[in-house]
């Protein structure tokens, strides 16, 4: 895809993300922005997160940020992680937690480890396992680093 075509697609996806009345179209636009893997989309995705109410679209935006792998998205995603872990485990959105962990893993920013650490004690083995995978991916020597602290 040449740059002109990429720019046209980018602009179309941004327009759909902000202007479509269909949650499916907004979610698809977010996914497509992630597939473009352009850092310039991070700020626009963040702006969309501020006003988005649909859970599925929010999840797609978080996934897109992970696909783009822009470290600027780390703390934005961590804010959603904080919101989830403040809830009781029964009330947590498990799908969102998986998406958050996977996105942070893809970004690979070590700042995420501090916040992911709480999930190592989760009652849900799937979340614990994925969190351990995230730690291994982001910092393969994480167990040694924790012991030294």
In short:
This protein is mainly alpha-helical. It is 74% helix and 0% strand. It has nine helices and no strands.
Describe this structure in words.
With 149 residues, the protein is mostly helical. 29% of the residues are buried. It folds into two domains: 1-68, Leucine-rich Repeat Variant; 73-149, Leucine-rich Repeat Variant, CATH 1.25.10. The chain has nine helices and no strands. The protein has helices at residues 3-19, 23-36, 41-51, 55-68, 74-86, 94-107, 111-116, 125-138, 142-148.
Mean pLDDT: 93
N-to-C order of helices and strands: HHHHHHHHH
Under the CATH scheme, the architecture of the largest domain is Alpha Horseshoe
- Indicate the overall shape: globular
Bin the helical content. Answer: over 70%
Structural class assignment: mainly alpha
Number of helices: 9
CATH topology of the largest domain: Leucine-rich Repeat Variant
Please specify the SSE layout and strand pairing.
Elements: H1 3-19, H2 23-36, H3 41-51, H4 55-68, H5 74-86, H6 94-107, H7 111-116, H8 125-138, H9 142-148
Primary descriptors:
mainly alpha, 2 domains, 0% strand, Leucine-rich Repeat Variant, 149 residues, 9 helices, globular, single chain
């Amino acid at each position: 895809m040449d740059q002109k075509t990429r720019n046209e697609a980018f602009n179309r996806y941004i327009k759909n993300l902000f202007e479509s009345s269909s949650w499916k179209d907004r979610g698809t636009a977010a996914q497509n922005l992630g597939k473009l893997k352009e850092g310039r989309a991070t700020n626009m995705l963040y702006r969309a997160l501020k006003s988005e109410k649909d859970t599925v679209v929010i999840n797609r935006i978080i996934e897109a940020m992970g696909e783009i792998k822009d470290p600027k998205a780390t703390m934005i995603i961590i804010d959603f992680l904080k919101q989830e872990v403040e809830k009781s485990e029964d009330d947590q959105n498990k799908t969102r937690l998986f998406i958050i962990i996977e996105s942070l893993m893809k970004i690979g920013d070590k700042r995420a480890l501090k916040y992911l650490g709480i999930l190592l004690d989760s009652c849900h083995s799937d979340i614990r396992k994925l969190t351990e995978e995230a730690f291994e991916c982001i910092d393969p020597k994480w167990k040694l680093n924790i012991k030294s602290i």
